[in-house]
Amino acid sequence: MSIDQRFNDVLNFRDLGGLKSKDGRKVRHGFFFRGAGLAYFSEEELEEFRKLKVKTIMDLRSLSEITTIPDPVIEGATYIQHNGLIVEGSEDIDWSPAGMRKIGGAADKQLEQIRGYYRTIALNNEAYRIMLKEIEERHVPIYFHCMTGKDRTGVGAMIILMALGVKEEEIRRDYLLSNLYRSDVLKQSLADVEDEAKDHPELKKLITIQDGVLEETFDTVMNSILEKYGNTDAYLEKEYCLDEEKRREMRDFYLE
Fold this sequence. Notes:
It is built from 12 helices and 5 strands. The protein has a domain at 9-84 and 121-181 and 215-254: Protein-Tyrosine Phosphatase, Chain A. A 5-stranded mixed beta sheet has the order 1-2-5-3-4, covered by helices on one side. It is globular. Helix 2 links the parallel strand 3 and strand 4 (78-81). It is of the alpha/beta class.
């Protein structure tokens, strides 16, 4: 998967097409796009975005985020908003820049709260149910995003790729690509706390969560699914009503 040169790297924009499934097929290009909020796109980038003929835009941000930085209108696309952040305990996490620069015991508490958030984000999340239903009903191409396209969006991509039977190592690779796309932002933020982080490695971890992604977060999400359901097929059936027949139909349509 290569960076799309039409869009600034920081937009974390990509097509999930090309990822390999367990049965040897690949996700078809042009159906699943993920990235940052459309408000961050330049006029030139929005013009390129319109050429994708997206039918559904799934905005996983909160109402306050949307009110502050609304998406521009994309003619011909159905806009759906449902907060992907609403999970138990997430409201207690300080996601502000100050909250993500804690050290010592305060940082340890913050990190544990964040782990708890990721242990629950893929469970009983109505936003992802809505998104999977749109995909099942073939309201595609679909663009799904949050603010920076790495957290709520990253987990959403994980679930879509699970439904398509994509190999776990491929799902992991896509998740971690956010660090490549946002490498300049992440490097600068880590450089800003370099001296302090020498004595407080927990600070480096918080900064990485703020501007990139941690591989251990991917494992936390996956393990929470497997601990509750045993395997991803049972998860998809119980959480999204995607039984074996529906999964097969989706894969036959979206894989090549």
